[in-house]
Amino acid sequence: MTRVVSVFLPKWSIDRHRRVSGGATQPDSAPLVLAGSDGRRRIVMAADDVAIRQGLRPGMPLAKAQVLVPGLRIENADPTGDIDALERLAFWALRYSPVVAADVPDGIVLDVEGAAHLLGGDEGLARDLHARLSAASYTCQIGIADTCPSASSQGFRSSECLLRCRLQHSDSTRRWSPSCAP
Known about the structure:
By secondary structure, the protein is α+β, with helices and mostly antiparallel strands. Helix content is 33%, strand content 26%. The strands form 2 sheets. The chain has a 6-stranded antiparallel beta sheet with strand order 5-6-1-7-9-8. Strands 3-2-4 form a 3-stranded mixed beta sheet. The chain is elongated, with a radius of gyration of 17 Å. The longest helix is centred in the C-terminal third of the chain and has 15 residues, at 121-135. Strand 2 (32-38) and strand 3 (41-47) form a beta hairpin. It is built from 6 helices and 9 strands, in the order E-H-E-E-H-H-E-H-E-E-H-E-H-E-E.
């Protein structure tokens, strides 16, 4: 039976920006947004947790964001760099499965049929994957199911912090949501 792992990286652009900048934009610092162009206007492409708590959202006009949050730190978004880094992350994930693909713009998908048992099953694989991504300062949510859409749905919808696999709808669909540190 096919087993698919979907890794959703909800803060991929922000996390990657922080890694590239050497940690110069720490989470506790001023609100940070990554800005890009949408036609002729500048918009917020990504926002850190501080900016989101202050009401900023991706897709919002940058001028509105600047008015709403004084002292807003604005950096240029790098969508091409994000995609390239996501491809490198997918290559790195070959340690878990020989079949891995980037799920642009913010995830990777792995076919772990016959491989999950090497790390103690679904839960062991999810724990190991989460631990390694967290150590690299990436926020992730992981879904495991029999099909790619089901795994993606489980990973995308999960928001609470679970430290173990939890049966969701049937024995064949599991969700493990490491959205916060274990």
